[in-house]
Amino acid sequence: MKILVTPTSLQPDKNPAALKSLQDFSCDLVFNPTGRPLTEDELIPLLKDCDGYIAGLDFITRKVIDSCPDLKVISRYGTGYDRVDINAAREKGIIVTNTPGVNAEAVGELAFGLILSAARKIPHLDRSTRDGGWIRSTGMELKGKTLGIMGLGAIGKVVARCARGFDMDVIAYDPYIDLNYCQDHGITSLPADEVLSRSDVLSLHLPLTDETHHLINRETIDKMPKSAIIINASRGGIIDEAAVYEALQSGRLGGLGLDAFEQEPPKGSPLLTLPNVIATPHTGAHTKEATDHMAALAISNLTDVLSGQECAYVVNR
Asked: How far apart are CA 206 and CA 152, in angstroms?
């Protein structure tokens, strides 16, 4: 069986140990030659005669799926699958799987790192000091502040745990919220609008759907406290970047930490010109522990499906 492997951290020079079980399953492996997520036109010639596909953050459109008659399984290396045309895969009988929860610690810790960095303006102060400056900049203590979490899944729970260690008040919105978990861990469950209106820091951990696209926009920003900080370590499309840019320039928002952009890489983004914006290259899941866990589960999902065994992580049944 021929298998395409595109995640940038699951290539022979990056993680040979994790690939061994896949190489034992198939000797016909194709890898990503670009070192970045693939576009539709780049993906088709690599995937068109493959049986299986371990997918990074590539754009897996209907055109891609229609061009791959032999494809049986798309095994997402990660939790999100918003870049996969699920309906097209279902129509073609292609199984789509994911790896939920295995990168929660890594992404949650990065999100809280962005919170600390934005609250104390650490990257800006670092750059200034390296350039010979010695400026005084007033930051914000986290103790006693309110952290709002939109999406209290596995990643949101890690952020909440970190926040409790800083004596922050934690509030959360999730359409499927676990009220028992909230009660056990001192988290107040609130409607989305109330989370927005009370959050000194807002951390986003939602999937990108039609409902969440540009959830953070001019209207929702106006509901937030002045000088609030927004953190997004989920998907870029959740934030209207033009609206956030205006709010940061005017002082309506105090800071922004992004590990995800609408366009990746964000070349030419005006957000990158602002000193109160911290940007990382969609790297939340990139710890050794998380990549090892994601690789093992993504490979297991793929081999289970191709071997005709039951797979617990199918997202398009």
From this structure: 8
Does the domain at 104-279 match CATH 3.40.50.150? Answer given as: no
pLDDT band (50, 70, 90) for residue 219: very high
pLDDT tens digits, one per residue of 119-128: 999 999 999 9
- Catalytic annotation present for 282: yes
pTM above 0.85, yes or no: yes
246-296 pLDDT per residue, tens: 999 999 999 999 999 999 999 999 999 999 999 999 999 999 999 999 999
2-102+287-306 and 104-279 in the same fold: yes
The neighbour count for residue 227, using CB atoms within 10 Å, is 13
Choose, from 198, 205, 282, 286, the residue flagged as catalytic: 282
Cα–Cα distance between 227 and 211 in angstroms, integer? 26
Q: Which of 91, 141, 264, 289 is catalytic?
A: 264
* Structural domain spans, the chain: 2-102+287-306, 104-279
Integer CA distances (angstroms), 64 to 2, 32, 49, 73, 265, in order: 17, 16, 12, 13, 22
- Asked about 161 being catalytic, the answer comes back as no
- Which is the catalytic residue, given 235, 252, 286, 293? 235
